[in-house]
Design goal:
The protein is of the alpha+beta class. The protein is built from one helix and eight strands. The radius of gyration is 40 Å and the shape is elongated. It starts with 21 loop residues before the first helix and ends in a 9-residue tail after the last strand. It comes from Streptomyces scopuliridis. This is MmpS family transport accessory protein.
Length: 169
Amino acid sequence: MTATGTPENAETPDESPEPGPSAPNVRSKGLDRRGLAIGLVLLLACGSLVGYGVLNSEEKEGKNESRSAPTAEVTYEVLGEGTADISYLGTGGSDKADVVKSAQMPWKKTVNVPAGEPSIVNVTLGEKGGQASCTLAIRGNHVQRSTASGQFGRATCSAELPEALEGAQ
């Protein structure tokens, strides 16, 4: 006890009272609401960025499609009798040729080749030999013809499409 008659651990009127059980709840509710508001703002910001990224990538894809290289229709044709191994460059973008083993002649294939890309068809006769010819046409216009004859005879027809095609597709 003190001289005033109050117990030593008693509060004095000038001192602020210690928070009771209800005070932390008031503070935590305020903090919880602020935290929830901050969380929602961050969530909306992230969602907006993701949405922008998706929409922006769709725009870029559309632009890429409109900027794709013009193409020309190329027709490869192999005339002769019997069979031959035929290799040709298909739709471009790859230097790897498509190969048809023991193709029955006559044989014909039409592909769309991008501007600036080569168009090539190779014919190789087999052990029995014979005679075969290849032709190459771009947009229906004959470009080249070559003939193979004899055992393992070879013929190649090739042309490179110009970078800028008139009346591009």
